[in-house]
Batch of 3 targets.
Target 1
Amino acid sequence: MKSKISAVHTAGRHSIFVGSGLAAMAIAGLLAARPASAAYEVVAVTNGGTIDGVVTLSGSPPAGAAIKVTKNQDYCGATIPDPSYTVGAGGGLANVIVYLKDITKGKAAPAEPLALVNEHCMFSPRAQGAMVGGQIKISSDDPVLHNTHPQNAETNATIYNIALPFKGFSVTKPLPGSPGLIKIKCDAHEWMHAWIMELDHPYYATTGADGHFTLKDVPPGNYTLVAWHEVAGEKTEPVVVAAGQTAKSKITLATK
């Protein structure tokens, strides 16, 4: 069963704006059930370890149909490949947000703003983590009118709506003040979507084209690692981090 994204949190298997109702409900339940963690404390991490891992996709991803471009075809092209599943060699899955669950102390957040670029009629990056209290720099590399419209993924409430009228235009805005999933769309180009997982700590990463990710300066301890993907959903894995050591992790998500 398929449904258009309205109050759901995931993009679809055959086009960017079509999704599995079951997958959407599962992700919605996971987000709603996620408890608020204790206030995060910034401390000096002198004996931290590293988590080095890869997220793979089991099975062959569905062959998504090319997305028909309905506006600015002279610049965007007639069609755009469906990026819902981006799978590299060995089944590595890109655009998976990986983070530690309920970590309460550790390193400071990055000082620079998050970046989101409107680039050749798509958002880049497609998925990324962020820390509560940070900022996001939204910019356009395209000579066509875009708007960047972030929404609370659970309620669809608009956070703000930024018009980007010309190439080189940029604006920096604050992120919302509480953890949660943010979905981003361009109202002018309905196929454009991106995702931000806002967290109350800085231990997050997004998998690259080969599915690889790294979390550094992690205080020694036992943790739960979470991997989230817009279509394949969410999965958790335990991980043990030892002082000065690298913990290896492999997470497999299933095709939906």
Target 2
Amino acid sequence: MKITSDWHIHSRNSCDEASMEINVLIRMAKDKGISDYGLTDHIHTLFNLPDLASSRREFLESNLPQGFHFSVEVSCVSQWEIDEIATGKYQKPTYGLRSGGPVNGNLAIGLHENDIETYQIEYVVGGTHWPMYVPIERKAIINDYHRQNMFLVTHPLVDIVAHPWWWHGYWQDTDGCFRSEPWFDDFGKIPKAMHNEFASAAIQHDKVVEINIGAILMNPTYPEHFKKQYLEYLSELKSQGVKLCIGSDCHSPEYDIDFDNTASMLESVGIRNEDLWVLSGKE
């Protein structure tokens, strides 16, 4: 199996620690045989729109090969924080407002249809990145992440759901590894009914679900038994008819992605290159 596509990549224009120049990406993608791929810098709320403008500008100034697309990764946020930020009373809400909001409040993304037209965004990746003001407790986190995943998979502007069940920030051991809650000790703690509901919605709304390399499959802080369970989860999504795609989630200064080992991992659960979604115009 040879992976030839990647639909989740960040440049130095992203609002986080990403640091790659777009021309470096173009050169290294060619060297690695990646022929279909997309730039997806972060948008959390409208505060990040200037970063998206910078990303678009550098993209257009690059020597663009055929098969390279311009996109964005939006975070699931709350309508409360979008409304709060719009008041202008927060100096630098780069990551939105990660405390103070209502539990089970309305969810949102910081992107509108006119932004898609303005920046000529070809597809939208949407990701759950943090708990939405719920107690830091296993059941609450699982319920909240499922709620966010379901919001994204049914949102009319989202085309790809990024890294379902990615986690960062709590229950981290002193060596930086995640081995316990919310689901690293046992991915089976997530009710299968949630996976089935998510898969059904992905099919119904014609969404693509991402196989994330950097944040999940090759994440050195995640335990191997979790990765095996996660591969089985991806295989089950495939068996139910969910469309899958590759996302490296690269944040590094170079496009140094282990596609070969990723391919071997996917082959071990019956996922092959011909099973992977590739953009062929706005679908």
Target 3
Amino acid sequence: MAAMTPLLEVKGVTLTFKGIAALTDVAFSVEKGRIVSLIGPNGAGKTSILNCISGRYTPDCGEIYLDGRNLLALPAHKRTGLGLSRTFQNIALFKGLSVLDNLMVGRHHLIHYGLLSSILYFGRAAADESVHRGRVEEVIDFLNLSPYRHLAAGSLPYGVQKRVELGRALAAEPKLILLDEPMAGMNLEETEDMARYILDICEEWGATVLLIEHDMGVVMDISDKVVVLDFGSVLAQGRPEEISSNTDVVAAYLGTEDATFFGR
């Protein structure tokens, strides 16, 4: 791939749980404005590396940098302030809150007015609230969530809830979005819509995406780069066409070298 500026750099990350290695010397980069997919068999360590990046796990050793800043020196909530947001493999919405309120939660780190101002709701608090509400409305329009804006998130169909979770991550105005299986459990139409949204997030919103996904057709269609994990280590990385023709990668999935698994 042509040399580009890395937004995220993962260097030699190792993570163990009571002596059992979940990740071993994992290293890769995510270039600005690109979609990079993490793939691998179940248990390969994909979610573990996302948890290390976001701050849920602390690796035993290694380095992780976001736009040149050392993430491992910061608690999870400080990483959000640097431009990092994520979705989860299992939906993690506030199910009793409306779609609008769930998206407003995504802007929490951007709210700077104090407690008194928020209680009395005057001056800076009122002005800031208007700005944040406007930005959230842009996300709602982008993800076609307008019919649901005032409905409780927990009452919505599964595919819509996945969109709401993506919207909450996008409302944070991130440089990098970590997406953990955003299309899991979706039907074909919902999957195609989500793939389009991810492409538009990069092209129209200027964000960078690190994606975990098991739908190999989607991965090969939308990714600029693919990183393959197997047993907690990087097996291969490169352009989609390079990965789809890599016999070691295909064998790791199927125990066979039949590359039709990747739709090629």
